[in-house]
Design a protein that fits this description.
Largest sheet: 4 strands, antiparallel
Strand order of the largest sheet: 2-3-1-4
Oligomer: single chain
Number of strands: 4
Distance between the termini: 48 Å
Radius of gyration: 20 Å
Shape: elongated
Number of helices: 10
Order of helices and strands: HHHHHHHHEHEEHE
């Protein structure tokens, strides 16, 4: 019980620091210079520019139906964590917009530092097994129906639409180019902080509830699971061992999925120096 409370406390600290850092990116560097952070936040920022409705409030309203649908279709603690993070990020965005001075500066500087703060903030959130909701969840739904479209590609296409909308509203083609720089900086920094260039984790799971855990990992994490026949060296008992390859930031979500159905499961997490294949680096 104490370990659970400690884990929740650590999660909350990561989420709070991540949300504050992300809000600094949006309200200090990006939005004041007409640069889009992408995703639902980018849409909310555009609406704020036109109507003056707070960005955080719009972000939260956008996410309500997505989170409800996600809970119905995916369920589990992942959506609950994401809902908590979404509310926290929305709150931090609205509060920081009132107390932090916007920095209107050179577009390159704004996009680079905005991307850095955005990458750090999102990395802190992802490291504890949650997301900021929105397009991430929508991408998972689309990927489940159209497997040939990876989650990354779907998010990239959605961000492209948001960047184009941002350029139209601000009537400045340069803002789209600066937005691309900011997103590139953010995603590259996330790569470094979360898992390096192509590194990941291999997770081995020994459990008596293989079917339920496979389904939970597929639904909540969006990763495939391999079943390996195994025999206990001491008991001689036949059982199924599960193997799953994930990014570092997805490890917590997999562990949560396992614990949902088997709190006594034996889990081994090992490093993968390089991963080549669907959902990771593709063979050149």
């Amino acid at each position: 019980m104490k370990k659970s409370y400690f884990r929740y406390l650590v999660d909350s600290v990561y989420f709070l620091v991540g949300a504050v850092t992300y809000s600094v990116s949006v309200n200090v560097f990006l939005s004041p210079n007409g640069i889009s952070p992408g995703g639902f936040t980018g849409v909310a920022a555009v609406i704020n520019y036109v109507t003056k409705i707070p960005t955080g409030t719009m972000l939260f309203l956008f996410n309500i139906p997505i989170l409800i649908l996600g809970y119905i279709k995916m369920g589990g603690r992942f959506i609950i964590k994401t809902a908590f993070v979404t509310a926290l990020v929305s709150l931090c965005l609205d509060i920081s917009a009132r107390i932090l001075p916007p920095l209107k500066t050179d577009g390159i500087l704004a996009s680079m530092f905005g991307g850095i703060f955005m990458g750090v903030g999102l990395s802190l959130i992802l490291l504890r097994g949650a997301t900021t909701g929105g397009i991430d969840i929508i991408a998972k739904f689309i990927n489940r129906k159209y497997r040939h479209l990876s989650v990354g590609k779907i998010i990239l296409m959605a961000d492209g639409v948001v960047i184009a909308l941002n350029a139209i509203v601000y009537r400045n083609a340069e803002s789209a180019l600066y937005s691309i720089i900011a997103m590139y900086m953010g995603t590259r920094l996330m790569d470094v902080l979360l898992y390096g260039a192509d590194k990941g984790k291999i997770i081995y799971i020994i459990t008596d509830n293989a079917n339920e855990i496979c389904r939970e990992i597929n639904n909540t994490v969006g990763r495939g699971v391999t079943r390996l026949p195994a025999v206990g060296g001491y008991t001689g008992k036949n059982f199924t061992m599960l193997m799953c390859t994930v990014r570092v930031h997805e490890v917590a979500a997999v562990q949560t999925a396992v614990k949902t159905y088997d709190r006594h499961a034996f889990i081994v997490v090992s490093d993968a120096g390089e991963i080549i294949g669907e959902g990771f680096k593709m063979q050149s």
